[in-house]
Amino acid sequence: MQRKEILFLTPSAPYPPNQGGSIRTWGQIKRLSDIHNVHLVTFVEEISSAGEREEYKTSKQIVFQAQSKLERLKQMLLSSQADLKLRLQTESFAKHVTKLLNNSRFDGVHIEGLEMGTYIDAVRHSAPDAKIVFDAFNAELLIQQRAFDTDKRNPKRWLHALYSRLQLPRIKRFEADVCAKADHVLYVSPEDGVELRKHGSASDFVLVPNGIHVNDYAVAQPNNAVPTLVYTGKMDYRPNIDAIVWFVNEIYPQLKAEFPTIELLIVGKSPAPAVRALAAVGGVTVTGMVPDIQPYMAKADVYIAPLRMGGGTRFKLLEAMAMGRPIVSTRIGAEGFSATDGVEMHLADTVAEQVAAIRTVLKNPAAGNALGLRGRKFVEENFDWDVILPKLDALYED
Fold first, then answer.
1. Do domains 5-211+385-395 and 215-382 have the same CATH topology?
2. CB atoms within 10 A of CB 338
3. CATH tag for 5-211+385-395 (out of 3.40.640.10, 3.40.50.2000, 3.40.630.30, 2.40.380.10)
4. Which positions ≥6 away from 338 have C-beta within 8 Å?
5. With bands split at pLDDT 50, 70 and 90, how would you rate the model's confidence at 50?
6. Could you tell me the residue ranges of all domains in the chain?
7. SS (H, E, C) 67-88
8. pLDDT category, 236, cuts 50, 70, 90?
9. Cβ–Cβ under 8 Å, residues 334 and 341
């Protein structure tokens, strides 16, 4: 196969691959760079370590600062367009991408996530012969609809519900436009594929699930002095905030009454004020950003995923399964995995079901460990990058 020139446009630095989007994008870049020439233009806060600079030699890259929160707020208030369309819309980024495409020939341009879809017109105009691959990450309209449905039931969340209600028609227009203008639309789960196809686009839709290199994760064997629950994620992300606040307020007190020494570790960068406040609850620790998530996952007697909104497939569950940790998740949290309740993980949507499932694992650790090992086998067979990423190769076959 002749080496192709491929450009990735990403909303954040894909290395280090320490959260969902970056794990997915870096997996693709590493795969494609083995057989093609990969270039990267990205928004990034900072590249500081020698290790990061060395890894970025895999691709030719240019980085840009994202807009400030104040700039985003001004745009959102003064525009009728989707917040996601405006969030990373900068003149300097657009000018650079246009110049790069005008001066160099690219066979393909990967637009990673709907936020970067704001540049699809510039890409098509400047590189009319390049394949445009839109990697949807999530069905964003579905995520916003679920957020609205959840928040409207809680008067304290009505302002958030109003935001979602205003954004819904805007996101629908934007997501449909990007899907229609891309040559290929990558989606992460069958559920997301159904939602994205509703926009009526004639583009080629390709299922490329989220994946990991399973051998990068060792099966953990916790030796905790007390029962330990773990939740991980980017803690200023709305679905994560809702999930862990709901868990601590409604589920954790019942577990605490039954298991007085139980502890909960909330691990992840940028905890929102509502998440930081949970550290005042007995036995709850909020770590903030950590250099490596695996040592914390390894402590999980039960890994929890009490998500009530969101979409796609969660890397956190792939990682927890790869480490052999027993999982208790809502069905929304486990969406895209086709997991069977009690086989690869426990599925529990209500407060009572969550309490019962976690109790089952804590009282029978051997059964919990067996559950975790079945989860690891499930990931090995279905969600290892070596199984998934050959689908990308087909996009560039001569």
1. yes
2. 11
3. 3.40.50.2000
4. none
5. very low
6. 5-211+385-395, 215-382
7. CCHHHHHHHHHHCCCCHHHHCC
8. very high
9. no
Confirm if 213 and 153 have CB atoms less than 8 A apart.
no
Q: Return the C-alpha torsion angle 270, 233, 29, 51, nearest 10.
A: 60
Strand ranges (E), the chain: 5-10, 37-43, 60-64, 108-112, 131-135, 184-187, 204-207, 228-232, 263-267, 284-288, 302-305, 327-329, 346-347
Long-range contacts at 250-254 (CB < 8 A, ≥ 24 apart): 250/351, 251/306, 251/351, 251/354, 251/355, 251/358, 252/281, 252/284, 254/351, 254/355
pLDDT mean across residues, the chain: 91
How confident is the model at residue 19, as a pLDDT? Answer: 80
Across the strands, what pairs with 8? Answer: 40, 110
Do 180 and 211 contact (CB within 8 A), yes or no?
A: no
**Residue whose structure tokens are 């569950």:** 317
The one-letter amino acid code at 292 reads D
Are 253 and 351 contacting, i.e. CB atoms less than 8 angstroms apart?
A: no
CATH of domain 215-382: 3.40.50.2000
